[in-house]
Amino acid sequence: MVRRLTPHLVPLLRTLRVLLLALLLSVTALSGAASGSSATSSAPPCVAPETPKSNGYDAATRRDTAFNRAFRHCFTTVRGVQMQMHYVIGGKGPQTTVLLHGWPESWFEYRKVMPQLLAGHTVIAVDLPGMGDSTGRPARYNKTTLAGYLHDLLVKIGAQRDVRFVAHDFGVGVAYALAAQPRRQVAGLFLMDFPSVGKSLSFATDVRPLSWHFAFNVQDPLAERLVTGRVGTFLDYFFRHSQISGSSQPGAGAPSPVPPQSLAEYTRVFSRPQVLHAGFELCRTWSQDEEENKRLQQVPLTVPVRLLTQDGLTGLMLPPVRDAAPAATGTDVDGAGHWLLEERPDRVVAEINAFYPAH
């Protein structure tokens, strides 16, 4: 026998259905926010996803439909509660390729090239500890310490063996520190435009005189005090007038190699006080990195290493890399400055794909 509902219960049941639907939608939305990505993304799911501690982490990608189909933002904590790491992941290929940014940038410097690296690869662009939209202050900013956080992150998300690294600027220092440890995590290093201090290259005598910003960044706490509240002005000037090769010297109307969208994104992240401090600390620990690299270089790397530099600087930068990896190869990019990923993205992609061919 089917019993009819009493008339006064019908509106109540309708209300309950509406509330249950709203609750289901809310849970789904919260789940997507915790993983930092769109539910329609084809990217691998975030491992141990967390709610982002950094507001606006997707400001530059929120309305980018193509990006959100292929990639997702992820956040997870390493070393207890000390550091929430932000990374962007896409692709499901058997080879894991990890992208490490330089200063004063974030994972976003790889934005143009990431879609072209997906074939046969799982691509992971990481915000270095304390930088970008990662949150927390590392115990120290020397590159071996930062490499330890990166190692823990990759282990947590399952990238424990045969990882191919691509690194630019200070990301090179972190990638080398990770590869030089007695681990099997690193399968190769593709490095871009960074003077690796150690046996044959000194920060004080060889690197610091190359550009005005090296001397400025080590001023503690003066650099932070002068730049706080003026981050956009500082970064715009820096990008225009920081080329070591002389292709872009200070002067009115000097072109910027970094487009407005990228400048806005880097201004956003470096306006976070911890990130501004972390960026300057990368330079302040360079002398310590030099001593640690001398020790690490006593055991040469055996993994493949390739160096790409701005126009005319391979002669300066390749010999110190060979102190660490005697079989390293390298070349410069005609007409390019330091910002290779912005200035010559197609050349960078071709070089990476040649060095790390998909199997």
Topology:
Layout: H1 9-35, H2 65-70, E1 71-78, E2 83-90, E3 95-100, E4 121-126, H3 143-156, E5 163-168, H4 170-179, E6 186-192, H5 203-207, H6 212-217, H7 222-227, H8 231-240, H9 260-270, H10 273-284, H11 286-296, E7 305-309, H12 314-324, E8 329-332, H13 340-343, H14 345-355
Parallel strand pairs: 3-4, 3-5, 5-6, 6-7, 7-8
Antiparallel strand pairs: 1-2, 2-4
Model description:
By secondary structure, the protein is an alpha/beta fold. Helices cover 40% and strands 14% of the residues. It contains 14 helices and 8 strands. It has helices at 9-35, 65-70, 143-156, 170-179, 203-207, 212-217, 222-227, 231-240, 260-270, 273-284, 286-296, 314-324, 340-343, 345-355, and strands at 71-78, 83-90, 95-100, 121-126, 163-168, 186-192, 305-309, 329-332. Strands 1-2-4-3-5-6-7-8 form an 8-stranded mixed β-sheet, with helices on both faces. A hairpin with a 4-residue loop joins strand 1 (71-78) and strand 2. Helix 3 (143-156) packs across helix 4 and helix 8 (231-240) packs across helix 9. The longest helix has 27 residues, at 9-35. The radius of gyration is 23 Å and the shape is globular. The termini are far apart.
